Amino acid sequence: AAMSRKGKKLLVDSLTRSTKHFTKSEVECLVKLFDTLVAKASSQFAGAGFDRTVFRDTLYNAFGMTDDVVLDRVFSVFDSDNTGRITVEEWVEGLAVLLRGTLEEKMKYCFTIYDLNGDGYISKEEMFQMLKNSLLIQPADEEPDEGVKDLVEIALKKMASTYLFIPFLLQDYDHDGKLSFTDFETAVREENLLLEAFGPCLPDIK
Amino acid sequence: KASSSLEDVGESSSETDEDEQPIRHQEGSTDLSPEYWGIQKLAKYVKGGDPTATVIALCSMRDFNLSEETCQLAIKDTGCLEVLINLLDTEEIKCQTGSLKILKDISQNILIRHAIADLGGLEIMVKILDSPDTDIKCLAAETIANVARFKRARKTVRQHGGIKRLVELLESISVGSSHQAKDTETARCAALALWSCSKSTKNKRAIRKAGGIPLLARWLKCSHTNILIPIVGTLQECASEPSYRLAIRTEGMIENLVKNLSSEHEELQMHCANAIFKCAEDEEIRDLVRKHEGLQPLSVLLDKSENKQLLAAVTGAIWKCAISRENVLRFQEYKTVETLVALLTDQPEEVLINVIGALGECCQEEENRGTVRRCGGIAPLVKLLTETNQALLVNVNKAVGSCAMEPENMSIIDSLDGVRLLWSLLKNPNPDVQASAAWALCPCVENAKNSGEMVRSFVGGLELIVNLLKSNDKEVLTSVCAAIANIAKDQENLAVMTDHGVVPLLSKLANTNNNKLKRHLAEAIAHCCMWGSNRVAFGESKAVAPLARYLKAKDPLVHRATALALYQLSEDPNNCVTMHENGVVKLLLAMVGSTDDTLQEAAAGCIANIRRLALATEKAKYG
């Protein structure tokens, strides 16, 4: 349903305040873009609104993001009220983090993306899911999954404070094999490159 | 040339130039280290993974101690180094960044540096300097700084436009904004890279052509020590080029250099002092150092005697600044000479050379010659005449010679056998050592008690010095003439020198264009005339005509010496004829009105002799 001029102005104002990263005119542009995209979508799919398909198309066109698993997750993150549709508020707020987020905001965002089942931890299985297509060349004599499992171990060792890998010491170690947000945050603060450790989910600088 | 340790400072002396392919030291067992296996495993994922997997592997690789040689070599041996460099060539910024972080650390290893250059890594890093991403430019610059520690690498950087890009990178940051951590880091890395590269002469020029000099001047004003150090490092490296020295003068850099002498960081102080050391060859710079109150901080820094590199730089700067008399007078106020004398013992060679150079200059002032004696400096100086380092010897000779201008000092020098030691340095193969020894002998011979006897006591000494007239080195010839002029004041010694053929040897030198040689040669001839038939002999060996031409030179000191020589020579009638034929009278007439008494008298005396002969000839002809 179309919004009145006044309604739109109130929306823009409130969004500018809440997201903090955009100027008013930028918010206006984003809202306009949203309307355009929804209009285009509804001409193709009756009453679809801004759904998963439209979203994935948009992100692909705008940012070149192609990974299905990731795109799915991004949609879920944007869709904070879990309606299966993105509202204009969710749109602007989501983009605020994607385009202009502080390191803290981006860390939270990425972690949520990678936490596939939303339980507050990135588990080995989840890492495996995300990395399983990352090895392009596998030595012939190895089982295809061995490499990925190994890579998961490497990532875990690098980032999990609670995962102690001390092969030669007979020590009880907390072999819980998962990353908490604190683990993730600490690792990323020390090495920014690990922000998108399990797959690109932020737009490229280019 | 052994004239100064300046050349050493100019040639990256702090690091040995590693131009030859470095040799690997194969130690102990051929078993591969655990690091090797760990790194090889990670290399597999870097080679075979997509960017996501690559980044994970690269980050994990940095958990190894990359400053340890075993790890560094493991990266090379597993073929991982090639992979890292290939990554640089992709457009994946995260992979490039991850790779550079590793390369930056391992390029501290000399074998790795050479390998990186061999694999074409430098070209790619230079290209990365064009990237819009600041972090990656910064990493590339710092890695280039590490790799460019050998000549071939520096050349590669220049040939691929690296110098220009580094200058542009530094230019793009404004000095004021350097409270921003990222800007500070970028500036630091760019400056480090420029410093590394500046060790090659062609690069010094390239930096200048790219507009680097005003840039260096600008950054000299910043307050971050870790940016200042490479900036001053670059400046002092380049200060061997006259164009840089000119700019240092005109762009007001001396003021900043002096200011930073008082920094808390000894490394910065050292580079500032070295820059001044190199620049102070120029008189205007010596004046500027004084005007900006730089002499006192230099003197104060002499107390930091534990840091030998700093001490060498400071003493070097003091040495060159002391070439100007006004600076010496200021140094006297700060009791610098006393401090310098204390540094004559227990110091490494590079410090000693400069300390003695400084003392040599300071002792051009009479007061300081006394100071050196009172502080017990003469004995250590004389002792150093037995050293073998040629640059050191040149300075010691000069210092001893300066001191010998005081009779009181001379007796100490003599009692310590100093003159004999100087004399034997005439046998040194290095012409600079020979010349400086000969110069030093002049005041010795002049001021020693029983000088004539002393000289005679040196077995073969007179023959030795006369034979040096056969040298090809102008400075040797000039100094030896000066010494002979002094020695010849003693009749017996003059007789001996005549026996050794001093007359024809001196005459052979007469056809010279060098004013300094002309002067001392004429003096030598003047004094050598006073024995036996030497006057006639000079005439016969055709010395007179060339001497006559010396009067046309513009140098008043040449005129005076020549007039003296001609006067002596004119006692022989044949010489008068030669002089007359060469138009001497007219030239000497002009000098009769000179304010220089000696010249006046000599000129007049010579003309009188010539006229007397002319008159006698007339009388004989016409009865």
TrEMBL record, chain A:
Top-level taxon: Eukaryota
Domain (EF-hand): residue spans on this chain: 66-101, 102-137
Keywords, comma-separated and alphabetical: Calcium, Metal-binding, Repeat
Alphabetical list of SUPFAM superfamilies matching this protein: EF-hand
InterPro entries in the record: EF-hand-dom_pair, EF_Hand_1_Ca_BS, EF_hand_dom, Recoverin
MF annotations from Gene Ontology: calcium ion binding
Name of the featured protein: EFCB1 protein
Species this chain originates from: Prunella himalayana
Protein's gene: Efcab1
UniProtKB/TrEMBL annotation, chain B:
ARM repeats, residue ranges: 120-162, 161-212, 460-502
Region called Disordered, residue ranges: 1-31
Species per Swiss-Prot/TrEMBL record: Prunella himalayana
Annotated Pfam families: Arm (PF00514)
UniProt biased composition (Acidic residues): 8-20
UniProt cross-references to PANTHER family, sorted A to Z: ARMADILLO REPEAT-CONTAINING PROTEIN 4 ARMC4, OUTER DYNEIN ARM-DOCKING COMPLEX SUBUNIT 2
PROSITE patterns membership: ARM_REPEAT (PS50176)
InterPro entries referenced in this protein's UniProt entry, alphabetically: ARM-like, ARM-type_fold, Armadillo
Protein name: ARMC4 protein
